[in-house]
Amino acid sequence: MVSAQISSSSEHDGINETQVVLNVYDLTPVNSYTYWFGFGIFHSGIEVHGKECGFGAHDFPVSGVFEVEPRSCPGFIYRASNLLGRINMPPSEFRTFIECSASEYHGDAYNLISKNCNHFTDDIAWRLTGKHVPGWVNRLARLGALCGCLLPESLQATTVKQLPEYHDCTEEDGSESLSTATPRESTEMDDNDQEKLLVTSSAGTGEVAFVREATK
After folding, report:
1. Where is this region: Disordered (predicted)?
2. What's the rounded Cα separation, in Å, for the pair 24 and 130?
3. pTM of the full predicted structure?
4. Per the residue annotation, which of 43, 58, 106, 119 is the catalytic one?
């Protein structure tokens, strides 16, 4: 459970070779006490080519995969990094890979027990490196799946919805304004809604940008 010593992906290698790093965050301060017993509530993201990808909830049947600056996911407390391996994959190829994967991880399908951010990182890690994330990262979900009676029903149905904040583009000047309004309950999504989800935030602001899933 010790943080790995992470170097930049191109420091010693060619431009296409990169580290695959798991970044883990605390969802609750209680983790400070339970972490040492191999138990806690965590969020995780996969860092490749200098960007961290994660999976979060929203109310629409489109990509819930998002990008943030590494180890800076808003709403969480960074805890540790784990080097999973190295791959030789151009950034453009990785972008295509993550966009294709996004079609399997819609925001409205997020579930704390059966399909959460740690299921996403484990899946991506396995596809890229043939390795799974450490078992302690998603132990709560496995306990909930095997022994649902151990967890309150309200917790089993929880989705992590501090992500995203919505960015509204004003028609007058095309600038962005930040809105924290809860998205409406709907199973449909028009073009304006999709642009609010997919707009890329300014670098260094600690905000998220959702990945547009590949079209079939």
Report:
1. 169-194
2. 19
3. 0.71
4. 43
CA distance 48 to 86: 9
Q: What are 104's two structure tokens?
A: 């399997």
Structural domain boundaries in the chain: 18-161
Cα gap 46→63, rounded to integer Å: 16
Residue 35 has which token pair? Answer: 């972490």
Q: Is-catalytic flag, 43?
A: yes
As a whole number of angstroms, the distance between CA 57 and CA 84 comes to 25
| pLDDT tens track for 11-65 | 445 679 999 999 999 887 776 766 655 667 889 999 999 999 999 988 889 999 9
Find out whether the peptide bond into 70 is cis, omega within 30 degrees of 0.
no
112 φ/ψ angles, rounded to the nearest 5 degrees: -60, -35
Fold observed for domain 18-161: endopeptidase fold (from Nostoc punctiforme) (3.90.1720)
The total of other beta-carbon atoms located within 10 Å of residue 18's CB is 23
Residues 6+ apart with CB under 8 A from 46: 20, 21, 22, 23, 52, 53, 54, 120, 121, 124, 125, 128
Concatenated DSSP letters of 152-183: -HHHHT----S-PPEEEEPTTT--EEEE-PPP
Token pair 């309950």 in the structure block, residue? 185
Catalytic choice (53, 106, 117, 167): 117
